[in-house]
Amino acid sequence: MNTPFHHYYADDSSGYNIDHVKRKGHFSMTVNHFHNHYELYYLCEGERLYFVQDRTYHVKAGNFVLVDRHVLHRTLDTGMPDHERMLINIEQEWIEASYPNHAAMLLKPFGQGIPVLSFPTAQLAHNQRLIDQISSEMLQQEPGYAIRLQHAVIELLISAARWTQTEDHNPAELQSPAHAKITKIIRYLNDHFAEALNLPDLAARFSISPYYLSRTFKSTTGFTYSEYLNLIRLKAAQRLLRETELNITEIALQTGFENFSHFGKSFKKMALVSPRAYRDQQ
């Protein structure tokens, strides 16, 4: 895999950044990924698989992927090489401060449970013009480019908000029997992560072999079974640290970590700070 170009824009005074990359060859994300900002992913060329929350979607050129805050996600290779994408990370505080009368409308698409948007031809052309404008402004940086970038980002959010109000925006969710089975398993994990869970028992519950579960889970989501379970436990721990006064030992137990030392090490590896420091930063 090589990268013909990779352009990045961030302004310290703004609450968003833009990452535009073209890749040749095969690529899958290797980073375990959820974060405190919104993510708008636009696929310019190629095809991708995108795992969001508890299921996998087939993403094609021109699609938006809208990822809510604190939602686990990862992009995967479809088996077809080469893709180009633009990623826009958006801070809630920036939208609320800059557009207080319209923040709810601009951010609503991220929380509707429909992460992949496919647009009709006319709207697709409009969105592509905005993406082209963003790319050009990032590269040329002529006077006023920062203003144009901000306006184009807001235009993309408006496109998403208007389209999600229609009745014809069903996502391209993968529907094979294997994907359907893994979706059920993932929903079970999200409901029962605080319990003692091991792969053989889970496989037996869903009448499949441990080997098949392990292999299919990885190929469908991009995560190993243990990676995914650990991440949803850590995500739940982050929420409890932000939203409750529970002590850290109790949080570890409530999120499925029987060993406090393992919890602390896992949390720091993922968040880059200790649980106590994470709570103090909120």
From TrEMBL:
GO terms for molecular function: DNA-binding transcription factor activity; sequence-specific DNA binding. The keyword Endoplasmic reticulum does not apply. Keywords: DNA-binding, Transcription, Transcription regulation. Residues 183-281 form the HTH araC/xylS-type domain. It comes from the Bacteria. PROSITE patterns: HTH_ARAC_FAMILY_2 (PS01124). SMART domains: HTH_ARAC. Pfam families: AraC_binding, HTH_18. This is AraC family transcriptional regulator.
